[in-house]
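Summary of Year 1 activities. Much of the first year was spent building the evaluation harness for sequence design. The harness presents a backbone, in tokenized form, and records the residue chosen at every position. We chose the following record to illustrate the format because it has been used consistently in internal testing since the harness was completed.
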């Protein structure tokens, strides 16, 4: 965790040489708190998430994941992102066991191939690659490469914006273990009220197990939260969630701060 804080400090020092004048994303109200939208960062602009924290817990087990995500607009419709991760896990009703370590690095590209106009939604495709920078020895990562593809749809609706996500993740497996591939799906509704945007999200996931793709587990989470812009260049996202079916965890929390900037000419 100390190394993570040092990295945050270095990133903060780097952005002092950048301008904070940024343009709006290519969807009107942006992404939800948990789910993505079909927008991309404009050419030459950055979005630094500092940090993104996801906390989940149930009786006897708690886990926290922290990401430092940096997105960059390569063109007005093509975005690249890199996100190193830190894991922290505690289990046992008396906190009898714990582990924390750097996790993996996720890199990705998102391409917006249609902007919203008239009755047509904004559409984008996203590819992400998990680079295994850690091993599975502590149970915090698989230690193998993952691939994921997503279709993202955004459309203005009743004064707000509806974001739809559909994805498939191929989970890499060590020789001696079997992990489940995942189909993910979700819907977010973002409704602006002055500087605050209220967000309601339904996030689902189905795990499949090789080799016959037999359904293993379904999860469905409901989140309620908000986005708040302190300035045009700095904002925060907060959301609380609960799992609607019987699978653990019982509750989830999501917190992120985002800083937008561009390189000075």
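For this record, the design step produced the sequence shown next.
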């Amino acid at each position: 965790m100390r190394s993570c804080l040092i990295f945050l400090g270095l990133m903060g020092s780097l952005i002092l040489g950048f301008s904070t004048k940024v343009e709006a994303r290519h969807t009107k109200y942006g992404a939800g708190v948990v789910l993505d939208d079909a927008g991309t960062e404009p050419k030459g602009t950055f979005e630094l998430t500092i940090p993104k924290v996801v906390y989940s817990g149930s009786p006897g087990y708690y886990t926290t994941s922290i990401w430092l995500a940096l997105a960059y607009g390569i063109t007005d419709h093509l975005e690249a992102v890199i996100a190193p991760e830190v894991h922290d896990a505690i289990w046992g009703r008396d906190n009898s066991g714990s582990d924390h370590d750097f996790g993996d690095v996720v890199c990705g590209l998102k391409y917006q191939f249609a902007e919203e106009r008239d009755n047509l939604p904004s559409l984008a495709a996203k590819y992400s690659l998990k680079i295994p920078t850690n091993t599975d020895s502590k149970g915090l990562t698989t230690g193998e490469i993952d691939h994921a593809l997503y279709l993202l749809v955004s459309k203005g609706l009743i004064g707000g914006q509806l974001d739809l996500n559909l994805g498939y993740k191929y989970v890499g497996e060590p020789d001696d273990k079997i992990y489940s591939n995942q189909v993910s799906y979700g819907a977010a509704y973002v409704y602006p009220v002055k500087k605050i945007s209220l967000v309601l999200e339904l996030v689902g996931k189905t795990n499949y197990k090789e080799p016959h793709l037999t359904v293993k587990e379904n999860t469905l989470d409901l989140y309620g939260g908000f986005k708040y812009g302190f300035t045009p260049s700095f904002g925060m996202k907060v959301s609380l969630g609960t799992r609607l079916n019987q699978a653990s965890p019982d509750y989830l929390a999501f917190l992120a701060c985002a800083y937008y900037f561009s390189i000075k000419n």
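Residues 2-262 form a domain with the Porin fold (CATH 2.40.160.40). Quantitative recovery figures across the full test set are reported in Table 2.
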